[in-house]
Write a structure and sequence with these properties.
alpha+beta, Jelly Rolls, 3 domains, about 15% helix
Length: about 450
């Protein structure tokens, strides 16, 4: 975008958030944003930064209910316009550069906000089931995202949650470069001299034909093999393990621990979050105590686009906490388990009162591979007591979570047991910015 146009856009955005924009200027802002990919990205980035700043200023105010505000009608109106552009122009690319050119895979299932991009900068986020995909990078951009791809030879790959997978072909081999999130692969038999290659933080794997799962974070990768055999090499020292069915191996980026394939008989049913290790989305910070010492980390919600097929995109505020996705062992759900959540709601935020609610959800996978579904519940927090410093502690039985059932025209919630499933990650969503902070989350089997 031209620098002069950038300056005009920034001036209008500043007036928007300061509540000084006129109707004429608002119309001019809409005109600038209409059809301009660069301007639209700048708009949303600006709004994101402003909301972060608003939260920090609000926390430092002395007087209760003090707040920097944007009139709700202007934010909703501008956001609605922005969302319409997402559908019609934001990620429009030249047809000749589309994802179907020299396709090596196709989309066979999906939900949430999914983005595909190519080396030449082409981007598209309105993928549909059946769309062909050429070499590129596919990402799940929010907690409820998942996408299933089928390669030309019938091999399948699923990513779920906040995930990033670059896929290509090199000298007859499929190459999957997986840098973040959860990946499940069902690989058809590959040519002996051209195995499927999987690259991830700390590890490199060769696959001839098998079903396996990969959990990747910046610090480590865990390969779990459910069928067949996968050869995994730890990058930092070249150690190699042949991982057979019902075994797993963990490769850490900076570790000299023994690199060994382990029988998959160990798993957790109880779990407690550990920050910053388990942070997948949110603003992580450490408040100072009265003694000027740093307190334990807190994870505060950040703005996000919530996109589901058949629904208009919505601006929500969320945090995402890794469970199996960031831990050394899988966490399986016990039917008698319950979540114990400690946190805070910022009553200095506009619109926050003594009774507030948020959505709690988790993504799950089958214990032996493959995406199993999303489960959600709605939790109400009572802050009527003035002695709790806006803090809360709640317990939610696993049985209260309902499974999201995908239908052609709309979703529905059904009662379906999650017992025995692997819990990938845990997320919290609010429909307005109530300054939700999570101190820690646990899975417990009995009252402590």
């Amino acid at each position: 975008m031209h620098s002069l146009k950038n300056k005009d856009l920034d001036n209008l955005l500043a007036k928007l958030v300061d509540d000084s924009i006129t109707d004429e200027e608002l119309a001019n802002l809409e005109k600038i944003l209409d059809g301009d990919v660069s301007a639209q990205r700048r708009y949303f980035h600006y709004l994101d930064l402003h909301m972060d700043l608003q939260e920090r200023v609000t926390r430092s105010k002395v007087h209760p209910k003090a707040r920097i505000s944007i009139p709700k009608w202007k934010v909703v109106g501008a956001a609605a316009i922005f969302f319409l552009w997402i559908g019609f122009s934001y990620f429009v690319v030249d047809e000749s550069a589309g994802p179907g050119s020299s396709a090596i895979a196709r989309v066979t299932g999906m939900d949430g906000l999914i983005e595909w991009s190519a080396e030449d900068g082409s981007i598209i986020n309105d993928l549909s089931i059946g769309d062909p995909l050429r070499e590129g990078t596919i990402e799940g951009l929010n907690s409820n995202s998942w996408v299933k791809m089928e390669f030309n030879d019938g091999s399948e790959a699923v990513i779920s949650g906040i995930s990033k997978l670059k896929f290509s072909q090199s000298q007859g081999s499929k190459v999957l470069n997986f840098t973040q999130g959860y990946l499940s692969v069902n690989a058809k038999p590959q040519p002996k001299n051209n195995p499927m290659l999987v690259l991830s933080p700390g590890a490199r794997a060769e696959v001839l034909g098998t079903q396996f799962n990969v959990v990747a974070s910046p610090q480590l990768t865990r390969y779990t093999v459910n069928e067949g055999l996968v050869r995994v090499e730890r990058i930092n020292d070249g150690s190699v393990q042949e991982v057979s069915s019902n075994h797993y191996v963990v490769a850490k980026l900076e570790s000299r621990d023994e690199f060994k394939s382990v029988l998959l008989e160990d798993y957790y049913e109880e779990w407690k979050s550990e920050f910053p290790r388990d942070v997948r989305r949110g603003h992580l910070y450490q408040p100072r105590s009265a003694q000027s010492a740093l307190s334990p980390h807190r994870l505060r919600t950040k703005p996000c686009l919530w996109v589901e097929e058949g629904r208009k995109p919505e601006l929500h505020f969320s945090v995402n906490i890794g469970v199996s996705a960031t831990g050394p062992l899988p966490v399986l759900i016990n039917e008698n388990a319950k979540f114990k959540i400690r946190g805070r709601i910022d009553t200095n935020m506009f619109g926050v009162d003594d009774s507030n609610f948020f959505i709690v959800g988790f993504n799950s996978n089958y214990a032996h591979g493959g995406f199993a579904g999303k489960y959600v519940t709605k939790e109400k927090v009572d802050l009527s007591s003035k002695d709790n410093n806006d803090q809360f502690e709640i317990e939610i039985p696993v049985s209260e979570f309902l499974k999201v059932k995908k239908d052609q025209f709309k979703d529905s919630l059904v009662r379906s047991s999650s017992a025995g499933l692997e819990l990938l990650d845990l997320w919290f969503v609010t429909y307005q910015n109530i300054g939700l902070e999570i101190f820690d989350a646990e899975i417990i089997l009995k009252d402590e």
